[in-house]
């Protein structure tokens, strides 16, 4: 069991910009030093609703990217899908407004020490953390291919400079409004084989991550994924965000996705364990 | 000089703000945000005999001014806990209250025996708001007989040393009646209140949102229930010390529980929204007490009960 | 065509959205904002035998996502009520459910006899969540024996005609046990839930905020408690119809109670924040049901209970 | 028992202006037709906290004045003391923001058919409804004297045009920061006798109204006052806002201050009945 991300800091962060991009809002915060500590895969936890809000819990958002300009100028960016009350409130806040934010939280994507061929797969707003990851990987001399999927074109988040940072970008939509018609998993095997992929990094809905993991296992490719489980605290104190993960000792434990995740090895996850504790889990009875 | 000291039974504390059981992890996670020794006490998550996976996910649902949880007492079991967590907490200089929970009266007895030899603990919080596997899964604290049996088992096995704080559920017809029973059985103090049984149905899937169906409601939504329970029990037994909890999110809220009769206050859900809530609340509470002209915390305990003549 | 009709026992209603007892005045005040005949039913404030001043003020306190009240059943008494309020409601074309409340078993008997002859009423809601003066002020619905006695008294005196809806308090160890008792005593349906006992202490005066000290907690804060109670009772007795209530402020919320097992839903506190809440909620609920593919309200009642196999 | 104010309407009203004046905020709403129906003494009920607010109840505010410019241009003004969470939220809303408002509610000050000598007494923000009243009285040919009191100068609300609308204005503060040092009741008897006052209209804290009533009774002057009791609904359905009032039949009943008030005859109120039901009240037992 790891401790909380050792650089995690709580602060009031001013919104610098908040713009609609397709189905999402791209929001930039002034965060000072925090920017220099965040790694791709980390997330932020933001209090929503303002004073006297009936919403008592923070919301987690993957860090899209950061700009480290020192303590006065550090910026942190996220991509928000207005979904329920909390995320909708956040997308409605104007520049100048300050939100209570904790970052960076959670684990980061593991960066290979050697140049490898990486495939980044994102579903919906799950693409957000992949662009920062892509930059890091490119700087390490990796080849980076990317596949982004969503139900419809408006839900593909792929800004221009993000697109430029990858060697190839394939988009897939269920309704065919952009790119290939279908699901991301329809195109993976081909790309993995053609480009001789060594490692897959993925972020998106749990169902998609699970389907990717099946392919990764079949083709013997390493798979790191950023999971999403409902979180009450984001800092490891509530035990709501757990999922069954097999440790190096072979034992399956209910681990906290906010501390031992969100980034985990795809093959350590006991998939499909929603609403049940898998047999043999430590302490199950 | 303002006197912030308090006690629960024989246990002494520098200030009355504690973490709530199950809402502060192992302590390590919060120690990133402040020194644990600044707290009145760290109350550990309820620890059971054996390692325990807890319930399946989803384990939580946000509700208006509150949340439901069904963690199901996930934890490493008492042995690993005593080996890893307690020494670490002691090293931090934290005042420690250990919470224990059992599935049978025998469990409570064994847990108490294991705690007997442990040094550096201020008190034992006995969570009897958990299902009794020997009695159709009914919660110990829901019935006078089972509540009494669990506390008696702890009392007999703990030795004379460690004060026992019995933690009760508000989901009963008369919490004062249960309180009287556990005090008779040997509890030195009472922890009020555990979560309120609730349910959320996800209108998209049209099923209970939590895998465990029902869960415990906590947060500001239940504060009026906590205040009422503390007030009723303090009225019935003014000499029994109460560790109050339920929806406290500010110094004003903590003050409210103290006026109702709490000698110390635990902070649970508020920590999820604000990791350093306990420290903020401690400072706000001290300021409130001073602003109201109190020289000590003790004078304020149960002050709302004074007769109308003192208006 | 979507079928919004529902029933509670023999009583038929065009749609399932009702006012909650004590939250709609005499009906006149709301009729300024919409036609009362648009509602499934108007549930009157609980009426007692004699005129009643209610409790002293302050009678209310706002709480996080809720409020406390201690009105103390202020009202004109049954005779004036039958003379003035009922004819007026009938003239409006409203579907009327009369709520009655007593201080003794005899009160309930007399009230039932008085209601017997009244025409144009769909059902009787029997509020047994009130203090029993013959039993140290303990609430009838808190104990199986007194709950049963009150409902039996109504059943014996009402004649065969009017369906009886017994309204229960959630402040009990097992609401399903009380529910079984009152159904055995002759209740045709159940109203769940009345307010939850709570207290607010005013930290300025350092006394209970309400003159009556404790009060009833209502509003969204208690919705998870209402959903749990309805789910538990529907599970125990799927054939008994439930009028659900507690914190409903939107069509989504009403849908949640229906999925848990309610056949109709009363709106209380939400009306205080929004006078036409009942009409808005009715429209939102119909839209929710249609969006989820239901052809009728009845199909959705208790839908959250279906076995996991039907996932 | 009266019904609800028959012109009461619920609407989303835009804030036209919101300015700090002393210890208060003067807020102007665009309310269309409502402006033409409001009378001095009526109040508005406003929902506070926005969507997802933990505050479920409306807040009541006395109508300071209205401008009837037809359905598009009607304006309604209130004076708000930022006190707890709800009023503070309201004072923080900017022009352009819309609030959910119901008005006009409650009873109005009774206007004499003959020209009389009126004394208007306000405590704190209680002065607000008196300026509109003063205009109406002046138009009826009445002489209007006014006494305003507060703990300190910042809490005297007396705008310039308001001052102009009265024949005399006396201010009284407890700390002497403006006007006479003391309480409004210290100066009343003098003014009543000197100016041969026929009727007193008052608005302010209950303690002040009660003290005024003692003086009015002693000197045999008619007294109408606008009372303030905690209200949950403002429209007569919750029975929280009651206070004991003697009817014309001599019977004391717990009447709703939102419907039978806020303006009531001072001598019909059973004063000092906070936290007790006066003996002999209808239904008391
Ligand atoms: C590690 C992590 C990273 C995330 N990254 C992003 C991101 O980059 N962009 C983005 O738009 N959203 C992201 N989410 C989801 C986000 O945290 C919110 O849960 C989501 O916006 C819905 O919140 P709401 O207030 O709108 O909905 P509500 O329905 O009001 O939420 C109610 C509660 O359910 C929880 N919840 C609801 N949906 C989800 C979900 N899908 N996952 C987890 N919890 C949920 C909420 O956190 C909240 O506690 C992330 C979640 C996690 C755990
Ligand atoms: C008829 C009437 C007219 C009023 N006119 C004005 C006015 O012109 N300007 C102004 O600033 N305020 C006025 N008030 C008081 C106002 O309605 C609020 O109660 C006050 O602003 C405090 O609300 P809050 O949300 O800030 O405080 P909170 O403490 O959050 O309020 C909590 C609850 O207590 C109630 N409450 C608290 N204080 C009072 C009070 N003094 N009177 C009644 N209820 C109270 C609130 O309505 C609310 O339901 C009036 C009240 C009434 C009943
Ligand atoms: C996520 C979570 C886990 C909890 N775990 C425990 C526990 O292990 N033992 C216990 O006695 N109470 C447990 N509680 C109850 C709290 O200690 C506390 O009594 C309750 O939440 C009310 O306080 P609050 O409103 O401040 O959270 C838990 C509460 C929550 C929200
Ligand atoms: C001000 C007020 C008065 C009430 N009066 C009664 C009553 O007379 N009889 C009754 O059975 N319930 C009464 N109730 C309870 C409501 O009918 C309802 O059961 C409860 O408030 C929960 O619903 P809600 O959250 O929608 O308000 C009252 C509730 C409130 C808030
Ligand atoms: S979100 Fe609380 S432990 Fe992970
Ligand atoms: S405020 Fe509800 S009846 Fe007056």
Topology summary:
The complex is a heterotetramer, with 2 copies of chain A (285 residues) and 2 copies of chain B (311 residues).
Chain A (H helix, E strand, L loop, with lengths): L8 E13 L2 E7 L3 H4 L5 E4 L12 E4 L2 E3 L2 H4 L1 E6 L4 H7 L6 E8 L11 E7 L4 H12 L3 E8 L9 H5 L3 E6 L6 E2 L2 H11 L4 E5 L2 H14 L2 E5 L15 E5 L5 E5 L6 E3 L20
Parallel strand pairs in A: 8-9, 8-12, 9-10, 10-11, 12-13
Antiparallel strand pairs in A: 1-2, 1-7, 2-6, 3-4, 3-7, 5-6, 13-16, 14-15
Chain B lengths: L5 E3 L2 E3 L3 E3 L8 H4 L10 E2 L16 E4 L2 E4 L8 H14 L4 E5 L4 H12 L6 E5 L3 E2 L5 E2 L4 H15 L5 E4 L7 H10 L4 E4 L3 E4 L1 E2 L4 E2 L5 E5 L4 H14 L4 E5 L5 H10 L3 E4 L2 H4 L3 H15 L5 H4 L11
Parallel strand pairs in B: 3-18, 4-7, 7-8, 8-11, 11-12, 12-17, 17-18
Antiparallel strand pairs in B: 1-2, 5-6, 6-16, 9-10, 13-16, 14-15
Helix pairs in contact in B: 3-4, 4-5, 5-6, 6-7, 7-9
The structure holds flavin-adenine dinucleotide (FAD) (2 copies), flavin mononucleotide (2 copies) and FE2/S2 (inorganic) cluster (2 copies).
Features:
heterotetramer; A: 285 residues; alpha/beta; Elongation Factor Tu (Ef-tu), domain 3; Rossmann fold; 2 domains; seven-stranded antiparallel sheet; seven-stranded mixed sheet; 16 strands; B: 311 residues; TIM Barrel; eight-stranded parallel sheet; four-stranded antiparallel sheet; 10 helices; 18 strands; binds flavin-adenine dinucleotide; binds flavin mononucleotide; binds FE2/S2 (inorganic) cluster
């Amino acid at each position: 069991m790891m401790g909380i991300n050792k650089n995690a800091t709580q602060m009031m962060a001013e919104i610098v910009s908040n713009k609609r991009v397709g189905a999402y809002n791209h929001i930039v915060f002034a965060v000072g030093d925090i920017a220099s500590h965040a790694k791709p895969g980390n997330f932020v936890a933001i209090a929503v609703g303002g004073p006297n809000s009936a919403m008592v819990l923070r919301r987690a958002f993957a860090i899209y990217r950061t700009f480290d300009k020192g303590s006065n100028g550090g910026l942190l960016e996220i991509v928000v899908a207005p979904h329920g009350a909390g995320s909708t409130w956040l997308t409605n806040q104007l520049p100048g407004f300050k939100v209570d934010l904790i970052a960076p939280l959670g684990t980061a994507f593991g960066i290979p020490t050697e140049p490898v061929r990486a495939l980044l797969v994102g579903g919906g707003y799950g693409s957000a953390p992949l662009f920062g990851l892509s930059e890091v990987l490119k700087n390490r001399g990796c080849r980076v291919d990317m596949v982004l999927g969503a139900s419809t074109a408006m839900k593909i988040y792929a800004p221009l400079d993000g697109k430029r940072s990858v060697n190839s970008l394939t988009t897939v939509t269920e309704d065919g409004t952009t790119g290939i018609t279908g699901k991301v998993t329809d195109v993976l095997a081909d790309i993995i084989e053609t480009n001789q992929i060594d490692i897959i990094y993925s972020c998106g809905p749990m169902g998609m991550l699970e389907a990717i993991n099946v392919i990764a296992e079949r083709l013997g490719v390493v798979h790191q994924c950023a999971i999403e489980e409902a979180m009450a605290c984001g800092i490891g104190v509530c035990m709501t965000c757990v999922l069954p993960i097999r440790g190096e000792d072979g034992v399956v434990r209910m681990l906290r996705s906010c501390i031992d995740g969100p980034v985990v090895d795809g093959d350590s996850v006991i998939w499909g364990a929603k609403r049940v504790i898998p047999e043999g889990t430590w302490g199950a009875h | 000089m303002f006197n912030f000291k308090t006690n629960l039974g024989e246990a002494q504390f520098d200030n009355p703000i504690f973490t709530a059981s199950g809402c502060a992890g192992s302590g390590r996670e919060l120690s990133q945000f402040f020194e644990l020794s600044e707290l009145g006490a760290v109350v550990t998550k309820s620890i059971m005999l054996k390692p325990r996976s807890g319930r399946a996910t989803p384990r939580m649902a946000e509700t208006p001014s509150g949340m439901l949880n069904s963690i199901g007492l996930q934890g490493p079991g008492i042995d690993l806990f005593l080996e890893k967590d307690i020494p670490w907490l002691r090293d931090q200089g934290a005042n420690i209250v250990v919470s224990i929970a059992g599935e049978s009266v025998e469990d409570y007895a064994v847990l108490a025996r294991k705690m007997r030899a442990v040094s550096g603990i201020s008190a034992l919080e006995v969570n009897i708001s958990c299902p009794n596997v020997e009695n159709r899964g009914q919660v110990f604290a829901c019935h006078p007989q089972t509540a009494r049996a669990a506390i008696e088992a702890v009392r007999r096995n703990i030795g004379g040393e460690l004060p026992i704080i019995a933690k009760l559920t508000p989901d009963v017809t008369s919490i004062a009646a249960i309180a009287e029973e556990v005090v008779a059985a040997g509890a030195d103090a009472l922890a009020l209140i555990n979560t309120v049984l609730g349910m959320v149905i996800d209108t998209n899937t049209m099923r209970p949102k939590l895998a465990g169906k029902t869960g415990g409601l906590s947060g500001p939504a239940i504060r009026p229930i906590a205040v009422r329970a503390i007030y009723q029990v303090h009225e019935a037994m003014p000499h029994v010390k109460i560790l109050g909890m339920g929806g406290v999110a500010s110094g004003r809220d903590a003050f409210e529980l103290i006026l109702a009769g709490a000698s110390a206050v635990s902070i649970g859900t508020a920590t999820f929204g604000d990791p350093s809530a306990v420290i903020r609340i401690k400072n706000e509470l001290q300021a409130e007490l001073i602003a109201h002209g109190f020289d000590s915390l003790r004078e304020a305990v149960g002050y709302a009960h004074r007769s109308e003549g003192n208006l």
